[in-house]
Amino acid sequence: MTAEMARLVARHGGTPVVAPALREVPREANAEAFAFGDRLLAGTVDVVLLLTGVGTRQLVAVLEAHHTRARLVEALGRTTLVARGPKPVKALAELGLRPAVAVPEPNTWRDLLDVLDARVPVAGRRVAVQEYGVPNEALYDGLAERGADVLRVPVYRWALPEDPGPLRAAVGDLVDGRADVVLFTNAAQVSHAMQVAQAAGLGRALRLALGRVAVFSIGPTTSEGLCDFGLPVDGEPEHPKMGHLVAFAAARARTVLAAKRSRATATVAPPPDAGAGRARLAESLFLRACRREATPVTPVWLMRQAGRYMKEYRTLREQVDFLELCRRPDLAAEVTVNAVERLGVDAAILFSDLLVVAEPLGFPVEYTRGEGPVVARPIRRPADVDRLVETNPAETLGFVFEAVRLSRAALPPDVPLIGFAGAPFTLASYLIEGEGSRTYAHTKAFMYRDAGAWAALMERLVATLVPYLNGQIAAGVQAVQLFDSWVGTLSPADYRIHVLPHVRRLIAALDPSAPVIHFGTQTAGLLEAMREAGGHVIGLDWRVSLAEAWRRLGDVAVQGNLDPAVLLAPPAEIRAQAQRVLDEAGGRPGHVFNLGHGILPGTPVDHVRALVDAVHELSARAC
């Protein structure tokens, strides 16, 4: 397809540089394929998953060495055929066959499993999988978890081109800054490009180069391949076709390049806030409360104060998906600042997500509407910890630092900006569970089974979080919040053994110029241990009495802790509940009013504003 792709690029105004990066090599001695053929003809295969068109044709060609095509077609017709996308459907049509299920594009191994769950239950059935050039272990694990008896059927392997010269030249163009856009159409291309670069001593240089250019992927599987190497993905087309990919890249390349070049020319130095501006921030209500100094009114800000409950946010989400919103510094800053302007709160919190750090670590994340994030290829075995990629947040998460700079420049000079990150336990739980959980059984089992692997995972997360949070501070945030949203699932003893030392090391390594808010949910039994782990402010959820919690914590500021559901009540009830929280604080210095967790979708904006006004009014009376 090189000639066709080159013509498409030229037609859209680009200068094509053709660099073949792989070839498909049939396996010479393929005992697994022959064993599959024997079982197929014997009628002991129930389901056949066909993952590629090339592989489907090659499999039939291999089996024809032992069996007639007619017998093979008849035997395949007796099984349940599942085709991943249109290419294996076309290959089957050449045999006069139609699949029972065709998994629509774009798709990943997770989409394939979802379709099987809905259409072809595999428990107790023999399932044969025509492999890619490399085995998909996550797919095999998913089939095994569903009770399938899996039969692997390798057909071909991927290899470097017979002449790798054009690929070496393309790597050189990237490293030397002679290329602007890269199109990847297969995950193996990523591996081979890195292999060629490393052989030439240019591995790190290529990684840096790919952070400067626009990188587009043809679809989810290729994007996973890029993320596995900790490389950026600047977008993929709606349909995984060559023409769609080129058109998508042509439409987006200028915007992506402009943003990356803007970040590259910016430094990670504090914005020009010196002098009077910095003094006004230091004397803000929020920062004074963090230092446990007296304030004329209780400062208030709210977790998830920029979110789905706001019409402006919903309108923006109709135009861009969640991940793009997080990666676009201009849009993230717009959402951050708009919430402050609408609500009159005393601090802004940067709009981002806990899991933006997951992809640079090698764990792609899908953000599905209404269902939360899903992490691809979760950690389930101790050896999986080695899949974490060493990453430099300054290179891989520059969009977050740029959003900090833009937000700080647009905020009023007396409104502090709060940065944040997920705490090590919560991030580890996402990487192990793969999604939300009620029991966190996978996480706890991993922690109990191999304490050494657990400690290694936590240490690697801390090694990423320290420069990530310090980078936010350097870029212009005045405080940072550590979200340990899932830590309440642990007993106090397990927290002290498996979590506290790592959180303590993380907080101790942060720039002391910015207060740290240490927040968790369902942590009534962990408060003393969290205080030992560190933090200038301890965040409280609504399941604990603020007065009792503060008594247990001692000399530290506290944040919280109104139930977010109260904001669904009439304004009079909101005011009464705000008074109750303020009464528990007793007017003591060091109270930052907040919810016990984030604002719920569907909350009326007027109710949120009513809470902010009530806190200011009621706390001023008490002073």
Description of the structure:
Helix 7 (137-145) links the parallel strand 5 (126-130) and strand 6. Mean pLDDT is 90; it is low at 266-274. The strands form five sheets. The protein has a seven-stranded parallel β-sheet with strand order 10-13-14-15-16-17-18. The protein has a five-stranded parallel β-sheet with strand order 4-3-2-5-6, sandwiched between helices. Helix 3 runs parallel beside helix 5 (86-93). The longest helix is centred in the last third of the chain and has 25 residues, at 451-475. It has 623 residues and is of the alpha/beta class. It is globular. The protein contains 28 helices and 18 strands. Helix content is 49%, strand content 13%. The protein folds into three domains: 2-22 and 160-265, Rossmann fold (3-Layer(aba) Sandwich); 24-158, Rossmann fold; 284-559 and 590-601, TIM Barrel, CATH 3.20.20.
How does the SSE layout of this entry go?
Blueprint: H1 2-11, E1 23-26, H2 31-42, E2 47-50, H3 53-63, H4 69-77, E3 80-84, H5 86-93, E4 101-103, H6 109-119, E5 126-130, H7 137-145, E6 149-153, E7 156-159, H8 165-175, E8 181-184, H9 187-199, H10 203-212, E9 214-217, H11 220-228, H12 242-265, H13 276-282, H14 285-290, H15 311-317, H16 322-327, H17 329-343, E10 348-349, E11 365-368, E12 372-375, H18 393-396, H19 398-410, E13 417-422, H20 424-433, H21 441-449, H22 451-475, E14 479-484, H23 492-498, H24 500-508, E15 516-520, H25 527-533, E16 537-539, H26 546-553, E17 557-562, H27 571-585, E18 591-595, H28 605-622
Parallel strand pairs: 2-3, 2-5, 3-4, 5-6, 8-9, 10-13, 13-14, 14-15, 15-16, 16-17, 17-18
Antiparallel strand pairs: 1-7, 11-12
Helix pairs in contact: 2-4, 3-5, 6-7, 8-10, 9-10, 9-11, 17-19, 20-21, 20-22, 21-22, 22-24, 24-25, 27-28
